[in-house]
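Thread title: Can someone regenerate the structure for this chain?

I was given the following input by a collaborator and told the matching structure tokens would be attached. They weren't. Posting the sequence so someone can regenerate them.
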Amino acid sequence: MLQEKAGNDAGLIWNALNGTDGLSVKDLKKATKIKADKDLFLGLGWLLRENKITTSETEEGELLLILNE
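Best answer:
Regenerated them for you:
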């Protein structure tokens, strides 16, 4: 059940990142309407494992998530 939720959240995240130059975690939570941090990070882990996203850090120290092409 949790695996299915993580996959669904990964889809929401992918769709939110598609067509952007990247989003912060805060902006990604707003765009996906994923409320729980654990759900967001499970979805991010899914996409990282599949090499669908890249992470970097902004000058302010925020995590930036970027969709791989």
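The mean pLDDT is 95.
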